[in-house]
Amino acid sequence: MSWNADRAKTRIREHLKTVPAVDSNIALDSARDQTTVRKSGLIGRLPIRQAFLVEGVHLYGQLLDFDGLVAEGGSETEGSHRRLLRFLNMHYRVWDAVVDNDDGDRVDYHGARLHAVITSPAGDAAAQITRAVALAGKLSEAAERLGQAHGFPSRIRFGIDHGRCLAMTTGRSHEKDTLFLGRPANHAAKLAAAEDEAGIFLTETAQQRARPGAVRKSAGRMVLDETYIRDAVGSFAFDSLERRVDEVAQDAVEPIFRFKRPELPLASVKFADLSPANSVRMGMASIFADIDGFTDFVDRAIEGGAVEITKAVRTVHVIREELNSVLNDDFGGKRVRFVGDCIQGCVAQGERTDDGPGSVRQAVICANGMRSSFDLCLDAVDSDAAIGLAIGVEYGPTPMTRLGYRGDDSVRCAASRATINAERTQQSIEGSGIRLGVIAQQVADAAVRRIIATGRLMSFDTASDLLGASQSPAVQIMRSEPAARSHAARSKR
Description:
This protein has helices at residues 5-16, 28-32, 42-45, 66-70, 78-95, 125-150, 183-193, 204-209, 226-234, 239-250, 294-304, 306-330, 356-380, 417-427, 438-443, 446-452, 460-467, 473-480, 484-491; strands at residues 21-23, 50-63, 105-110, 113-118, 156-170, 177-181, 199-202, 215-218, 221-224, 259-260, 279-292, 334-339, 342-347, 388-403, 411-414, 433-436.
């Protein structure tokens, strides 16, 4: 498997044929009317080939004690991963209750981060924010109760923002993702992850649109008023959430997680086949790739109207699909999910035993293949957008499974220290580029460390040549033209 420019161009032409149509007038509540079977989350409701402009509240919850459960005694073991997955499964089951009523819509989960959107009552930002605050308060109470029942920590930090986002659903079968692109989703997520202090926090935009008296100044910063929170929580019944908490709290039978080593490449793993009792686990290189500058690009498109929105949807669709193709088709990796404009995935080497250096090398070559495809995508959509690609890579033992509901609403999950730190490593990059996490840096071979030292993403051909990869153009030439070997040897002297 390898990246190839002609093959990438062919794929990109196919991606252009599946760009979602844009309806900038349809609201999320209109999409609800299309449901003829049981009400489900956005993943089941939004058509794959349409993009929607959605105004509402984005609520992110960050499980603050996630990191402490990853390892025991400083090491990641099957036991620590089982405990971590039980912890996530418990919280996911409770959060899934928000799709059973009109409290909100569960969008997705990404490790310790939980995402919901509230669009009711339509057109009333202050009321939507109050509903989101009430839901956050109830979820905090639920987490505390479940923590006491099952012996898990229960601290959550919530971030809330309000505004308009582009929404679209991508993927097929059991591997769909509903994406919200734009400032409100991005800023709420960043606020939730900003500190280790539990509570409910509003962005400046949400503070300005909240009801009078909702926020007050305390110790030099604006915080939610306790009375406002208490009144908000008391204003909504949240019956479905209460029922789910009772169910999970009283459930003495916890899922049994059994791990097996997957057959490689990881691309052959199907999440539809995974379950707690049929989970996979091995040493993997976790990749987190982010389109730098994309939130500003989308916000300008939303302000520019339907034509600019259509261009933005076309750009993100083609880039996202092609990055997935590079990961899956060219390098045998496995996409866990799209997270907004980001892609989270893993690659692995070593049929019988973990091959850390090989996995990190494969991830680095894959990242540079992504860079080459990224450039081809921008050419194909004729975009001069000020966007780039930032990729973080980390290595470590990682389990993959499905959690929460069975079927289409189940949660694809890869959770480990490597998945956590790949994202944090990516976030530490200013602008575009590539960076290895601490463990990946330690296990990488000398050649990989040498080309990573620049922090730049190279073209695939340049990176594979410098690494002497079997798929590099120079190696291919020497294989097909033996006479070139002596020239190559002389040039190294």
